[in-house]
Amino acid sequence: MSPGNTGSAPPPADLNELRSELREAAEPERVPELQRLFKTGPGGYGEGDVFLGVRVPAVRVVARRHAGLNLDGVTKLLRSPVHEERLAALVILVRRYGRGDEQQRQRIYNLYLGSMAHVNGWDLVDVSAPHIVGAHLLDRKGAERQVLDRLASSPSVWERRIAIMATYAFVRAGDCDETLRLARVLLDDEHDLIHKAVGWMLREVGKRDEELLVGFLEHHAGDMPRTMLRYAVERLDASLRAELMAAGLRRTATVGASDPGQNNRRSPPSANLIRPAASCPALYFDLPPPQRPYRRRCRVDLETLLVHLYFLVDEWWPKDPSSRAEEARPLAVAVAERGP
Q1: Which domains does the chain have, with CATH numbers?
Q2: What pLDDT was estimated at residue 286?
Q3: What is the pTM (predicted TM-score) of this model?
């Protein structure tokens, strides 16, 4: 605190105090749940991440209390192995960026780009990318936005998610072009976290300009992963939503049949490939007692089952027409338990 300060400003933030407060707010019993949610096990996208069990609102409270932490301290926090500490660092950076002058914002932006290896969780990306990367590039055009193309083509799923989530700032400002452009770039991405992020941003485009979204989907539905398309159409009218989903199915089937090399997703089940036997137009399964008693017995039309399976698990029916109904039983149970 400077000598001329009257005492109204908060005392200098201390990194050790911040870490201590996070641990005081921790709920260790939540750690297993968080480990499952963020897939921290071997082979998961969050493998090895460490959680204290602090709830997000509590992290935000602690971060606000230590918003004056200097950039060296924030950098140390951001490079911590503890997830909640990295989240607190990003909350501080977002707050500081929004209130900083141009020089401070440039420093924070540079720090963020240099620390992306530690912005390694979907929540960490989503809480920061629009407010730092997106906000910084909002009024910049041309070469300065090329960083988004570099991130979108990165082998890191987190950098690719940063690229598309950064465009949220543009969409909020009424500029949807960058979102649509990057969505095209990421159409063939294999990671579910990118499918969800792109679908989410397309949905946000639709909130501002539904006609623009529908035009994009009419052209690209067949090329989009099913999760991405479902997220994108979520807020559309039910009939339009169903039409776009069906258009995606038809186009995927057409592309897959005409030129398999152009589409690495297998064609959807065909009614000509597998039909219910005339003597058995429907399958009946006795289900274990569900939470809803009226689902005690389930009648599943085979062709309807195939369509539902396609939408629910995005897996194609086996190509062998001799597949037996018994093979469908566990999948039919899953459909019945999920319901419409």
Answers
A1: 10-128 (1.25.10.90), 136-260 (1.25.10.90), 282-338 (no CATH)
A2: 39
A3: 0.72
